Structures are given as structure tokens and as C-alpha cells.
User: Which sequence fits this backbone?
């Protein structure tokens, strides 16, 4: 029985990239449909009417949306190379740090530090540093957030390993200082160079261009509203 | 097993705390409830949830678990012999998790947006958003319940808990604005579900009465109006 797996994604979305990693780590064959978010396909609108967003996984015709929901579905459906730990407390911790990654780390770095400048950026940095510090503490005694091998939290936070460097280049601002965050810096290198992960990063030149355009647009909007 | 092995830090008006209490009730788990006072945070809370400093926090054998939906899933998995809270089929679980995330990310902010809205236009816009959300959730209810009483089927489950915890505050909003937000004519499934949910054994003792909650809301809004801007 062919179990058709399709992934609706964009070339740059860090949320979709998590799903690519999970599928490849588990050796699941799938078809990719690239979406242009300025011109969404009828399929996407049909599969995710509530949010009209990617990623969407479609398994044997059944759609699943929201990246963490998709990751848990994948882990429960294809049991080889588990992403979440077995112990209920460890699972709760993994879910907690994954959520913290999106709610606090991503928000404070991209929508805080990256799109600001001057005093506003300095203030945003304080918040970002607090959040990164929690991650640094969480890595104590571990190579990956998942322990000896990559797990759910590594995939959830994986965007950091590639995007931080791009954001630092574009904004001209150090965000993850190796001296302040030695464990997190080491993790970023180890994760970025891991098998499968290292072959699936989006093209750097395009990422630089995209984030430069984002920062310019946000700074211009902030300046014109003053 | 000593009761103090399981503590829940919370407050009676909080819908998020209610989620944890309902989950514990479903599994018939005895626990110590530590009521946090409005406007202050206990040392235990600050130590148990240094990241967010928020309730609810479940402390099981001295290990803290934070974030209401994460607590509900933990309770389901740690006490796996009790009645299940999440569905057993992976796709049904994904659908339940999807709508729970929708409720937290989109629907609840529209309800709390209504409380914060200033002026007639803003209030009307907020109410429209709440009602639109209910239309989506009505459809979800139809698909998930498959003709039964609850999102979870015959018994209340994850998605029932995720949405049902807000019914008290919903009624307060309806009362204070003199409107119906959950309309039996437009969303009959949800309207019927709401009554059954509130009457459920695992829910009825932890769902605050609307009058008591309305009084609390007035105190809360007054306190917020009087307070200086919060320091970070």
C-alpha cells in the first residue's frame, strides 16, 4: 500500500525545514510542493483553511498543519529513530523548550533585535540574551538538546544554527557571542554539520537577500511612523 | 501515596489552571492546590517556573511542569492507566492538537481582545472575531465529535478541555457587554456541548460561577486601571 506523503512548504521557512529534517531522519519518502505565499495554491487553501499557512503535511490525503503538531504526528506514525523521549517528564520538557523556542527565542531575536536599531535594539538584546541564557543552561552536560543524538528540541531550535549567522551579517550585530554562550555556539556548529541537516539548509545568498529586504522594510516602516 | 507528591500552583479564576485541574480530575488524582494571590508570586512559583513565572505549574515528585496544555498531555501520559485524555489515533491526536493550538494562538486572544477593546467599533470588531472563531470551531466539533457529545467523543478529552476552560470568562464577557457570543442558532453543536461540558463530573467543581467571576473581573480591571505601567 503506497502511503502518499506530501509536504507543502516554502524554500526558506524554518518551520517547514523542521519537517524536512524529521522526514529525512526517519527515512520517509515524500513529495515536496513549493508554495508562493503571495499566490497560494488552491490545494493549500483547501488543506489549511484556518490559517492558510505552510508547512502542511498531507498523509494519504489527510492534511496536518502547525509544525509541532506535524512533528508529533510524524513521530507517532513512523516509530523508527524517535524524536521525542519515552519518559513522560522528559517529553513534557521537550515540548516546553520547543514552545519556548518559538514563543520567546525566535520572537525576541527576529522581531526584536533583528528588525530594530539603536536604543530599541539594545533593549531588545537584553530580552534576547535572557532567552538564550535559558538555552545555554539547558545544554549543560549534553551534546544535543536531545542528549547524545538529535531530538525534538534540536529540530525545534535548529533554525538558530543557520539563521543566527545570517541575521548577524545583515544587522551587523553579534547575537550569539561564543564567549557568552560557549555551549550554544558549540551546539550550533554540531547541529549545522550533522548528517542530513547539513545537506538541507536553504541557499545562503538568497537568505541574506531576503532578510536584508525584511530588515530594510521594517526599519523604513518604523521611521515613517515616527 | 502521599498527597503532597503532587502539587498544583494556580488560582481559581484562571482558565489555564482549570485545564490542569480537569485533567487531574479525569484521572482521579489527589493533589495539593496552592492558590497564588493576585498581584504577587510565591517563592515556590518563581523557583518552579523561572522562565515564565506563571501559573499553572504542576509539581510531581518535586519536578515542575509548566504550560497548561503541556501539563494536560503530561497528566495523560504519566497516568496512562486512567481514562485517556488525548485520542488514541495519531491523526485524531493531530487534529485535537491543531485546534487546541488555534484556540490558544487565535481564538483566546480575540476573547481577551474584547475585554481590552476601547469604544464601540473596537468592541464590535472583537466580538465579530470571537464569533467567526466559533463558526470554525463548530465545524471542528462536527468532525471531531462524530455525532457524540464531546470533541473527545463519549467522554471529555483534550480539545474539550482546551476550549471549555474559557466558558466561564465567555459568560462574563457576554454579561458585561450584554451580548450573546455563543449563539445556539448559529453554532448549535457548540451551544449544546457547552452545557454538557460544564455539567461534567471532572469540570463542575472547578468551573467558577459566573457571578463570582464577574466580581473578580471588575476587581481585576480596576486594579489594572489603577496600577502603574508594569516593569519588565
Assistant:
Amino acid at each position: 500500500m503506497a502511503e502518499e506523503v506530501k509536504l507543502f512548504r516554502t524554500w526558506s521557512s524554518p518551520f517547514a525545514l523542521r519537517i524536512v529534517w524529521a522526514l529525512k531522519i526517519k527515512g520517509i519518502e515524500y513529495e515536496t510542493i513549493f508554495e508562493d505565499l503571495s499566490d497560494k495554491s488552491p490545494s493549500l487553501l483547501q488543506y489549511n483553511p484556518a490559517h492558510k499557512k505552510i508547512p502542511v503535511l498531507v498523509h494519504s490525503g489527510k492534511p496536518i498543519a502547525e509544525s509541532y503538531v506535524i512533528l508529533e504526528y510524524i513521530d507517532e506514525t513512523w516509530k523508527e529513530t524517535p524524536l521525542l523521549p519515552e519518559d513522560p517528564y522528559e517529553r513534557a520538557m521537550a515540548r516546553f523548550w520547543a514552545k519556548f523556542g518559538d514563543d520567546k527565542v525566535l520572537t525576541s531575536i527576529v522581531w526584536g533585535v533583528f528588525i530594530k536599531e539603536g536604543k530599541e535594539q539594545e533593549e531588545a538584546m537584553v530580552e534576547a540574551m535572557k532567552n538564550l541564557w535559558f538555552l545555554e543552561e539547558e545544554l549543560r552536560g549534553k551534546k544535543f538538546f536531545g542528549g547524545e543524538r538529535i531530538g525534538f528540541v534540536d529540530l525545534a531550535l535548529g533554525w538558530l544554527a543557520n539563521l543566527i549567522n545570517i541575521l548577524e551579517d545583515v544587522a551587523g550585530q553579534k547575537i550569539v557571542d561564543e564567549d557568552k554562550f560557549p555551549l550554544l555556539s558549540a551546539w550550533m556548529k554540531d547541529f549545522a554539520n550533522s548528517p542530513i541537516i547539513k545537506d538541507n539548509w536553504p541557499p545562503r545568498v538568497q537568505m541574506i537577500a531576503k532578510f536584508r529586504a525584511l530588515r530594510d522594510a521594517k526599519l523604513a516602516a518604523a521611521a515613517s511612523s515616527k | 501515596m502521599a498527597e503532597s507528591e503532587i502539587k498544583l500552583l494556580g488560582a481559581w479564576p484562571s482558565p489555564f489552571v482549570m485545564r490542569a485541574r480537569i485533567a487531574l480530575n479525569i484521572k482521579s488524582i489527589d493533589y495539593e492546590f496552592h492558590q497564588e494571590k493576585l498581584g504577587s508570586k510565591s517563592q515556590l512559583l518563581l523557583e518552579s517556573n523561572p522562565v515564565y513565572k506563571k501559573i499553572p505549574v504542576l509539581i510531581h515528585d518535586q519536578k515542575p511542569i509548566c504550560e497548561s496544555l503541556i501539563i494536560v498531555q503530561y497528566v495523560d501520559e504519566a497516568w496512562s492507566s486512567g481514562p485517556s485524555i488525548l485520542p488514541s489515533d495519531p491523526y485524531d491526536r493531530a487534529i485535537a492538537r491543531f485546534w487546541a493550538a488555534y484556540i490558544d494562538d487565535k481564538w483566546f486572544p480575540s476573547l481577551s481582545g474584547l475585554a481590552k477593546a476601547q469604544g464601540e467599533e473596537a468592541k464590535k470588531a472583537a466580538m465579530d472575531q470571537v464569533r467567526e472563531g466559533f463558526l470554525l470551531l463548530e465545524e471542528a466539533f462536527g468532525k471531531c465529535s462524530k455525532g457524540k457529545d464531546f470533541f473527545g467523543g463519549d467522554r471529555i478529552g483534550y480539545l474539550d478541555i482546551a476550549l471549555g476552560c474559557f466558558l466561564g470568562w465567555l459568560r462574563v464577557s457576554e454579561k458585561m457587554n450584554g451580548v450573546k457570543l455563543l449563539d445556539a442558532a448559529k453554532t448549535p453543536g457548540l451551544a449544546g456541548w457547552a452545557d454538557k461540558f460544564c455539567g461534567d463530573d471532572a469540570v463542575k467543581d472547578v468551573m467558577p460561577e459566573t457571578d463570582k467571576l464577574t466580581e473578580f473581573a471588575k476587581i481585576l480591571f480596576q486594579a489594572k486601571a489603577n496600577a502603574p505601567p508594569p516593569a519588565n
Observations:
- The first strand of chain A starts at residue 5 and ends at 9.
- Chain A has nine helices and four strands.
- Chain A has a mean pLDDT of 96.
- The interface with chain B takes residues 50-51, 59, 62, 64-66, 68-70, 72-73, 76-77, 88-89, 91-92, 95-96, 99-100, 104, 127, 134 of chain A (CB under 8 Å).
